[in-house]
Amino acid sequence: MLRKGPQISKCVLQIASLLAIMNAAVAVDEAKPAGVAQVADTIWHMTIFVDSVQSQVEGRVLVEAQDGSVLLEERNGRLRILTAAMFSSRTKTETPFTPMSPDELAADLLVQVPSGFEVLQTEHYVICSNSSQEYAEFCGKLIERVYDEYFKFTTDHELPATVPKGKLPIIILESEAEFKAFATRQHPETSFENIPGYYSIRENQTLMIDLTRDRSIRSASAIRKRLADQPLQVATMVHEAVHQLAFNTGLQVRLADNPVWFSEGLALYFEPLSPRSSTLWTKPGIVNARHHPEFVRCSEVGRAKLPFGELTQVDKPFLDSSTVATAYAESWALTFFLFRQEKNGMRKFLTNLASRKPLQKVTAEQRVQEFTAAFGKSPDELEPDAISYVRRLRVPK
Q1: Phi first, then psi: what are they for 221, rounded to 5°?
Q2: Is the full-model pTM beyond 0.90?
Q3: Could you tell me if 138 and 212 are in contact, meaning their C-beta atoms sit under 8 angstroms apart?
């Protein structure tokens, strides 16, 4: 069985896990807030030992800590936190850092997956799949539509998003068992029960299950009909694709201390489907039929069940099964309100968010200050206006 109801996002759990690693292993030199900017665009060759096994890695150093640990970005997009104790040698080169070409990325993905996978390249994605070619093509059309609408949206709102320098990787696995096995290898600290897909911040890959679970389905119309019966699962595909875009276009910075309410609110803003569309999705900004009713219930007394001040200051409500449904509903509502009614403030807020550095913590007080500076009001002060606006919305029939 796949996803049925409110649950803790795998993206959220990854953020919590990676920040814990950050706090334990890396002390960023505050005197050099840009890290090792002088080498950020050249390749380093490194010999490292992990569990007594020697390997060679190369990439650009995004951050160097006081103790010699580094945050390394490989050419396939993978991020590694390497402690000083792991290094046997490291050499800086003058070779400019560039992402893998589409063909290099395709070959790299095929090494990571079991046998039987094939690659489909679209305009902006490299899709590695062991589902039917027709299913991979359907997914390609869907995420390309999301890509186009994402950039139309960011352009219309004058947001600081830039086109990715390389194609983005997608992995589609035919069965739930294969998906869970692959996902567990990537993130052994996380449970992937009842999950149809996720975006890996560390690996920079979006993983999906073949929702038809049937390679014999060969027509786009039959695939569409099967997927139309699983709207929540298809919405998850859109949701995770938006996470990948946000973290690859500069709107958000991978391994920075991004507020979860916005990370999830943005993906939820794009998530709702359009059942009559050939791809089951058309554009962002449709009232979310799953989270709007929940938000109405959470604000019946004219106040948010989870105060907006708490929602925006700390990420804990997203990690607690007793508050996660409320946190998601309120994140969608707040993000929807801000994009619709506070466009100038949202542009200021996201310009500041895009300037954050990897592995540097932001305190709860700093979050409130940044929010208030962008919107002219604190989260709690904006809460009544947002409640009044969102409660008047109507879910499309």
Answers
A1: -65, -40
A2: yes
A3: no
Q: State how far the Cα of 253 lies from the Cα of 236, in Å rounded to an integer.
A: 21
* Residue pLDDT tens, the chain, 397 long: 344 444 555 565 455 555 555 454 444 444 344 343 334 589 999 999 988 899 999 999 999 888 889 999 999 999 999 999 999 999 999 999 999 999 999 999 999 999 999 999 999 999 999 999 999 999 999 999 999 999 999 999 999 999 999 999 999 999 999 999 999 999 988 888 888 999 999 999 999 999 998 888 889 999 999 999 999 999 999 999 999 999 999 999 999 999 999 999 999 999 999 999 999 999 999 999 999 999 999 999 999 999 999 999 999 999 999 999 999 999 999 999 999 999 999 999 999 999 999 988 999 999 999 999 999 999 999 999 999 999 999 998 8
Q: Find all residues with CB under 8 Å of 202, minimum gap 6, and list them.
A: 14, 18, 78, 79, 186, 187
